Structures are given as C-alpha cells and as structure tokens.
Amino acid sequence: MNELFDRDAGGDREQSAGDQSKPSDDQADTPAVAIEGVSKTFENGTDVVTAVDDVSFTVDSGSVVGILGPNGAGKTTLIKSILGLIYPDSGSVRINGHDISENPTAVYEDIDAMMEGARNDYWRLTVDENLRFFASVGGEHPDAIEQEHERLLRKLDLLDKRDEQVRNLSRGMKQKVALASALARDISVVFLDEPTLGLDIESSLTLRRQLRQLVDERELTVLLTSHDMDTIQSICDRVIILNDGAIVTDDTVQNLLDMFQTQEYRFSVRSLSEALAADLRERFTVTELTRYEDRTRFVVAADTSTFFELTAYLEGTDIQLLSVETRNADLEEIFMEIVE
Ligand SMILES: Nc1ncnc2c1ncn2[C@@H]1O[C@H](COP(=O)(O)OP(=O)(O)OP(=O)(O)O)[C@@H](O)[C@H]1O
Q1: What is the pTM of this model?
Q2: Of 205, 235, 281, 308, which sees the most CB atoms within 10 A?
C-alpha cells in the first residue's frame, strides 16, 4: 500500500479517449517499464555512432534497477528515450502500458526524474515552495497533498528546513530536496541520475537508506544510474549493464555477487621485503598489494590447496603473518570484469 500517496483515493486519472495503450484493470501484471528493440544512432560528421543498439527489457513495478556502463555506453541516450526527451530510431517505450510516443501525457503523469548536474530545484524558493511548484506542474493541487509533502519531508529529515530557501542548504540537503521534488506528486516510476554524487560518505549512506525506505513504502519503480557501486549495491534489486549500446548483463545484484564469487584472501603481514613481494607475485595471483610502514596487506585469489601452499610458503620465510581474512568480490569488481 502506498503510504505517502494513496493512488486509489485520487480517482481523477481518467483514460483519455485516444489512449489505446492503457492496460485494463485486469492486466495487473503490466510491467512498469517495457523497452522493446530501442535503437538510436547519431551522426558525428561522417561517422555514424550507434548509441543504443536494439535494447529490450522490462521492469516490474516496485523494483529498483541500476543502469550501468562505462562512459559512452549509451546510458544517457537510453534514459532520454525512456523519458521521452529524444525519439529513438526504432523500438518502443511503454510506461505502465502506455506507449510514450502514442500517449506521452499518460506517461508524464506516471514518471518523473531527478537529473544529475541539472538544477532540479529553484534555489530562491523554499523547500516547501519547490514541492508545491513541482506538484502543481505535474497537475496536482498542492493544498490537497500538503500532508503527503509533510510526510515526505519528515522521511527525508527535511521538515525543519521546509521554510528555508534551497540555496542556503548544504549539498546533501539540496540533493534530498531534488529527490523530494521528483517525488512531490503521485508518480509511480522515477529516474534518478547519480543521486548520491558529490555527497560525503555519511550523507550518501543516509540518502541511500532514506531512498530505499521511500521506494519500498511508495512501491516506486526506480531506474537509477550511478558510478558509485556502493550506491548500486545497497539500493538496487537488479542491474542492467550496457556496453557499446547493447545490454551485456541483466541480472539481480545477488545473482551477480553469487556468480562472480571468487575466493580471495586478504593477508596482513610484517617484514615483507621487495624481493619477497616480487617472488610472491611470481608464484601466486596477487591482486592488490599495499604497504604502510612495516606492514603490508595483499590480496590473493586462491583455491584451498593454493591457500595452504601460500601459508606454507610464508612460514618458510621471515615474513610475520598478522592476519588472514576471506574477501568477497563486490559489485565494482564484477562490473569491471564484465565490461573489460
Ligand atoms: N547528441 C549526440 N550527437 C552525437 N553523438 C552522440 C550524441 N549523444 C550521444 N552521442 C554518442 O553516443 C554514444 C553514447 O553516449 P551516451 O551519452 O548515451 O553514453 P553514456 O553511457 O551516458 O556515457 P557517460 O557515462 O559518459 O555519460 C557516445 O559515443 C556518444 O558520443
């Protein structure tokens, strides 16, 4: 049940006469987002760049999907196509069953976006005024959803800032106001572009936690891009990885973590000379090695027998073993492995 916005209570969303694409009530399993064969090329002088190449996927209502990819992979072009900001050369985009090219009005009722780098809010307006403004632009009467705004601001710890001009707030707070503005009306799909960019660790953790709570409570469907894999890993249910305009991976975060599980061991030792470090690298798969004064930490990928071989090797030297921990691959490493 959507706690912040009770969609059933509004009842003022009527199907437009020309809307042939709207699902009937019994089609409750219509995906929130359905992308079918979307392609887009750009002409750069004499070059033709295929930014998005026959991309298809669906997103179930209430799930959070991270769209990842290296620079130039086609993320922005794909997202702009989903938001109706550019027309793809071919393929279709449907939001809650509405085709964006056939019925953009119905789509815009359901979707909003928080864009990175763009000024999402009016900095001279207060937090409250921004929420009211964005709700009105989306066709809602701000007085009618005053309580929802209050709840939203409370969830984001912004209630005591509601009468502050946005320009006077910290970066983390501005980011939250941008999020609140995107969620200031009763939408069901939201696109968030780099929602935690530029935040310090604590603000980023807080925003991630609050965002995930809001998503769950409002049953929002979220498409999200971020270069911060911790954000992706902690918020997303699923990731779609693009490379050269095409999907190279589409799976749940958990499956990816399980699938790429390599056993790695993090050793912390004392008295590892340069010569022994070189020898170690020669004999074993050392993936990281960092030194701090007399202490060295290194990570080795190894199966059980190699692990015992390594500990026997260390025992035969002057190296003092301080600790060994097992270490699991995180999403960042998995992402690098996939796109490389
Ligand atoms: N308006 C445009 N005109 C010409 N080429 C474009 C245009 N927009 C994007 N491209 C090209 O399409 C490809 C995909 O670009 P896009 O911006 O979608 O990638 P991205 O994954 O968002 O990259 P980044 O992470 O760097 O933002 C790139 O090769 C880019 O140069």
Answers
A1: 0.76
A2: 235
